[in-house]
């Protein structure tokens, strides 16, 4: 009985070594993610017999090293094509519409008054609605306030651009707008001019 058991173990060891790439008699292949168990030596009828006792944690897996970089990249591309990025749900028209009320005073020449400006599509009572909307589109940058005031610590030239004032309210690019303009110094004049033709030109 002992001889039969020893012969069976020897056959199992030979078979195990035959499918392990790069294995040689008396050694176990260094397969990624596995740890070989040392051989055990036992005495048989014809002399010492080496018995293979297996791998720690089981035989090496074909997937132990993970997919190749190329295969992973191909899978990611395929997944991206199959499942495009989800877009946020559309906002309600009353929340997302770009509508502004522009009130101008002190300019003269028929430019004073209150005007409604609608964009996308352009419309309203503003005399240059299409040009004004185009100007606002070009000024709008993600993460920045299109109607931001002059910074408190800005160094501005001491020049006077006239008594013109303007007040712009409404919604633009999904944000509420409540901005005031004048031409009291060089910074304010530049800020006003940057918004033309949403704001009218002046004689000064």
Explain what this protein looks like in three dimensions:
The chain is an alpha+beta fold. 27% of the residues lie in helices and 23% in strands. It is built from five helices and nine strands. β2 and β3 form a beta hairpin. It starts with a helix and ends in a 10-residue tail after the last helix. The model is unreliable at 13-35, 59-67 and 75-95 (pLDDT under 50).
The CA-CA distance between the termini, in Å, is 115 Å
Detail the poorly predicted runs.
Answer: 13-35, 59-67, 75-95
- The radius of gyration computed from the alpha-carbon positions, rounded to a whole number of angstroms, is 40 Å
Mean pLDDT: 72
Q: Got a strand count?
A: 9
Characterize the main sheet: 5 strands, antiparallel
Strand order of the largest sheet: 7-6-5-8-9
Number of helical stretches of at least 4 residues: 5
Helix content: 25-40%
| SSE class | alpha+beta
How does the overall form come out from the CA principal axes?
Answer: globular
| Strand residues, percent | 15-25%
Give helix and strand order, one letter per element, not per position: HEEEEHHEEEHEEH
């Amino acid at each position: 009985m002992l001889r039969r058991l020893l012969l069976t173990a020897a056959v199992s060891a030979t078979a195990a070594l035959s499918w392990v790439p790069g294995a040689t008699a008396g050694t176990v292949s260094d397969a990624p993610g596995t740890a070989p168990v040392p051989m055990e030596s036992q005495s048989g009828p014809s002399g010492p017999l080496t018995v293979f006792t297996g791998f720690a944690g089981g035989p090496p897996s074909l997937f132990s090293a993970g997919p190749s970089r190329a295969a992973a990249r191909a899978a990611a591309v395929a997944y991206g094509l199959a499942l495009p990025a989800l877009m946020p749900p559309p906002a309600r028209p009353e929340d997302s519409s770009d509508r502004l009320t522009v009130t101008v005073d002190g300019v003269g020449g028929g430019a004073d008054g209150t005007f409604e400006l609608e964009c996308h599509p352009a419309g309203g009572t503003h005399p240059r609605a299409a040009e004004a909307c185009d100007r606002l589109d070009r000024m709008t940058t993600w993460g920045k306030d299109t109607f931001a005031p002059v910074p408190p610590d800005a160094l501005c030239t001491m020049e006077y651009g006239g008594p013109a004032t303007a007040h712009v309210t409404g919604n633009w690019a999904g944000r509420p707008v409540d901005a005031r303009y004048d031409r009291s110094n060089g910074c304010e004049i530049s800020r006003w001019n940057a918004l033309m033709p949403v704001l009218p030109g002046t004689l000064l």
